[in-house]
């Protein structure tokens, strides 16, 4: 008996240990069975911006500097863009913005350099050089008008000889820049292929120079130049219209000649008598009636009045 009791006790203790171990394993989640949803997703690596996007952002920043009149920062950024970029379109946009900044700062020497570079590009027949030059020239014309409006808003005149020396020099440098532009535009307008673009530009530049006259004589001189330029503009338009209209006229003549040759020959008309053809042959010509003779059978016709004998 004691041996059986001991065996039963040992067996029961072993069963209790086994049951406790199984219960512990059922309540615990293994580390390998952790759900994947609990893990945080790894964000993808950001795509680096392209060179075009970088240049576009830098140009936008330079425009913002110009808008808030921070011309020094805008010019610094634009000069770096022109130095680093080899894209002609980017350099053209930067050049136009630089011209705006230089004119607002009154740096006419730098503005003259950009104008000379644009004219040199045109003489070299570079792509889109005429459009780039027109944009640069437009900035100069607009800058001169802005200068005149600024003087007028302050009650001043650019032709006043009593202005301070700084104002006189500023107006004189703008006149010189406009005269350089006029000379270049006049040379470029000789090209018939681009005269339609350069002649209106020349007209605007001459008008702006006339608004900056030194005195009455200078203003009258540039008004005469304005009249001559408008006459040249009208003549250039007439030449362009004639050149455009010549080809269709010649083609129309050739088409009419071909149609005439393809038509059958026409039957010649019959000769008419000398007196002409009577449209109504059944109707005979009636003699003209004498107004003093009444027609026969008409008793009611008016008779000539008889004169009564008067007594002597």
Q: How would you describe this protein?
A:
The structure is a single chain. By secondary structure, this protein is mainly α. It has a domain at 106-243. It has helices spanning 2-27, 51-67, 71-84, 88-105, 108-123, 129-153, 165-188, 195-211, 216-262. Helix 5 packs antiparallel against helix 6 and helix 7 (165-188) packs antiparallel against helix 8 (195-211).
What is the averaged pLDDT score?
75
Helix-strand sequence: HHHHHHHHH
Low-confidence stretches: 238-255, 273-285, 296-302, 306-312
Number of helices: 9
Number of strands: 0
Regarding quaternary structure, what we see is single chain
User: Strand content of the residues, in percent?
Assistant: under 5%
Shape: elongated
For the termini, the CA-CA separation is: 212 Å
Computed over alpha carbons, the radius of gyration is: 51 Å
User: Helical content, roughly?
Assistant: 55-70%
Structural class: mainly alpha
Please outline the major beta sheet: none
């Amino acid at each position: 008996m004691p041996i059986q009791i001991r065996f039963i006790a040992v067996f029961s203790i072993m069963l209790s240990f086994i049951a406790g171990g199984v219960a512990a394993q059922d309540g615990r989640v293994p580390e390998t069975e952790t759900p994947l949803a609990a893990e945080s997703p790894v964000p993808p690596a950001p795509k680096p911006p392209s060179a075009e996007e970088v240049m576009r952002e830098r140009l936008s920043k330079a425009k913002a500097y110009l808008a808030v009149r921070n011309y020094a920062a805008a010019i610094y950024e634009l000069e770096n863009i022109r130095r680093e970029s080899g894209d002609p379109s980017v350099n053209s946009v930067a050049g136009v913005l630089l011209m705006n900044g230089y004119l607002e700062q009154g740096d006419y020497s730098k503005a003259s350099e950009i104008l000379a570079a644009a004219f040199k590009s045109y003489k070299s027949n570079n792509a889109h050089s005429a459009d780039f030059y027109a944009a640069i020239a437009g900035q100069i014309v607009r800058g001169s008008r802005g200068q005149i409006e600024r003087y007028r808003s302050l009650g001043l005149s650019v032709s006043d000889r009593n202005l301070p020396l700084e104002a006189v020099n500023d107006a004189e440098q703008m006149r010189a820049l406009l005269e350089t532009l006029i000379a270049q535009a006049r040379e470029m307008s000789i090209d018939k292929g681009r005269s339609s673009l350069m002649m209106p530009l020349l007209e605007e530049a001459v008008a702006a120079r006339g608004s900056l006259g030194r005195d009455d004589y200078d203003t009258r001189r540039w008004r005469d130049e304005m009249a001559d330029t408008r006459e040249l503009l009208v003549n250039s338009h007439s030449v362009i219209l004639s050149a455009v209209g010549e080809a269709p006229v010649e083609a129309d003549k050739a088409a009419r000649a071909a149609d005439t040759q393809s038509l059958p020959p026409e039957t010649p008309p019959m000769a008419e008598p000398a007196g002409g053809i009577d449209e109504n042959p059944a109707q005979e010509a009636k003699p003209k009636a004498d107004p003093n003779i009444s027609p026969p059978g008409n008793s009611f016709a008016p008779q000539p009045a008889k004169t009564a004998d008067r007594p002597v």
